[in-house]
Write a structure and sequence with these properties.
Number of helices: 7
Low-confidence stretches: 1-24, 146-151
Shape: globular
Distance between the termini: 49 Å
Helix content: 40-55%
Mean pLDDT: 80
Structural class: alpha/beta
Strand order of the largest sheet: 5-2-1-6-7
Order of helices and strands: HHEHEEEHEHEHHE
CATH topology: Rossmann fold
CATH superfamily: HUPs
CATH architecture: 3-Layer(aba) Sandwich
Oligomer: single chain
CATH class: Alpha Beta
Radius of gyration: 20 Å
Strand content: 15-25%
């Protein structure tokens, strides 16, 4: 009867004498979302994510999230950027994604690249769910103390709110 209980258990568990008859099946990672902000930390996370995708034969999408600057003054007036500023932000996003795609191709894996407007901590988990990703990969900046208090942590917020697993890659 032991054979029936352990037939689908990896041999490493059998060697350790661990029978996992009721273990759930492993999740297959077929689609990986790599969030980038074009920083050195994000580039490192991209490399880790692409190498993981190669090993898993998974598809990769790079996501860059940008916000248009806006300011609200004490009198309630709002400043929105000009169309030239908006065009430049979109152009810079496209240029950054083109360079990131080239880097991934240099590693030997093709990727899709998309950009989206909004708050990164909200857009990344939402995009992952809406597009059926199995894993989010993103870098961490390693801020501590006042810097973290002022800047916040996009990675921390994504980990807290994402409905799919998140792999955070610390700075090299």
């Amino acid at each position: 009867m032991a054979v029936a209980l352990t037939r689908n258990v990896p041999s490493v568990f059998l060697a350790l004498g661990i029978a996992l008859a009721s273990a759930p099946p492993m999740t297959h990672i077929r689609k990986i979302l790599i969030a980038t902000d074009f920083s050195p930390q994000a580039a490192h996370a991209q490399q880790v994510g692409v190498e993981l995708a190669q090993k898993l034969d998974a598809k990769v999408t790079l996501l860059y999230v940008f916000e248009f600057p806006s300011y609200v003054f004490l009198d309630g007036a709002t400043f929105m950027p000009s169309s030239d500023v908006i065009s430049q932000i979109v152009f810079d996003a496209d240029a950054g994604l083109t360079a990131a795609k080239a880097t991934a191709a240099g590693i030997g894996h093709s990727v899709e690249a998309v950009s989206a407007q909004g708050k990164a901590q909200d857009v990344i988990p939402g995009y992952a769910i809406a597009n059926s990703f199995d894993l989010i990969v993103m870098g961490t900046h390693g801020r501590r103390g006042l810097g973290r208090l002022v800047m916040g942590s996009v990675a921390e917020n994504v980990v807290r709110t994402a409905k799919v697993p998140v792999l955070t890659v610390p700075s090299p």
